[in-house]
Amino acid sequence: MVLEAKGDGKKKLKVGVFSFTGDEGCVIVFTELLNEYFFRWRDLVEFKYARVIQQKNVVKDIDVAFVEGAISGFKEEKMLRKIRRNSKRVVAIGSCAIDGSPSNHRNFFDEQTTREIMPILRKFPYRKKVSPLHEIIRVDETVPGCPIVEESFLNILNKYLIEFGIVGRDSNEKGGKQ
After folding, report:
1. Kind plus residue range of the DSSP H or E element containing 150
2. pLDDT confidence of residue 169
3. Which of 5, 55, 113, 172 would you call most buried, defined as having the most Cβ atoms within 10 angstroms of its Cβ?
4. How many whole angstroms separate alpha carbon 100 and alpha carbon 6?
């Protein structure tokens, strides 16, 4: 069954898909989901920011930001704060975004190893600590896994399609599955 658009079908969920420090496995899963759901989502979702699928990206007026990866650099931290300011909801997707692992391994280095990598951290300007999103901004929801659990992602997307009035509440559809 396909999700039904409400009203004239012109209202869409404005989504951003962002990737920080990690292996980008969650974004790869998202891209794979597009293979299956693109034709159903195109009338329901407007991608405001998704570097993996488009060149023109704007961090402004986003309903839901899906953010992958831990925060390891100052530029990432600044961008994450911008995402939060410009998004009604922020969803941390994947283990790196939720708890920092496995991207945060250097947080657990011994003192000697930390001293050895300090010149690299300063050169590129990395933060002293790799952090999950919730240590820097308020996160509204999480999608677990490394990479993300597809069904959980689809359920969250469906929840926000309903919450933002894009589809009716009576839809028994989970993220557009047939």
Report:
1. helix 150-163
2. 80
3. 5
4. 38
Residues 16-61: tens digit of each pLDDT:
999 999 999 999 999 999 999 999 999 999 999 999 999 999 999 9
pLDDT-derived band at 171 (thresholds 50, 70, 90) equals low
What is the DSSP code string of 72-107? EEHHHHHHHHHHHHTEEEEEEESHHHHH-TTTTGGG
20: which 2 tokens?
A: 């920080």
* Closest-CA residue to 153 (of 64, 74, 51, 50): 64
* The residue to which tokens 């929801």 are assigned: 141
**pLDDT attached to residue 88:** 98
The greatest distance separating any two alpha carbons of the chain, rounded to the nearest whole angstrom, comes to 62
Contact between 1 and 155 under an 8 Å Cβ cutoff? The reply is no
Give me the domains of the chain, ranges plus CATH numbers: 13-163 (3.40.50.700)
**Nearest Cα to Cα of residue 26 among 121, 124, 133, 165:** 133
Contacts of 172 (CB under 8 A, 6+ apart): 1
pLDDT of residue 8 exceeding 80: no
Has residue 67 got a pLDDT over 70?
A: yes
Pick from 120, 121, 146: nearest CA to 132:
146
Strand order in the sheet with 62-68: 45-50, 13-19, 62-68, 87-93, 141-143
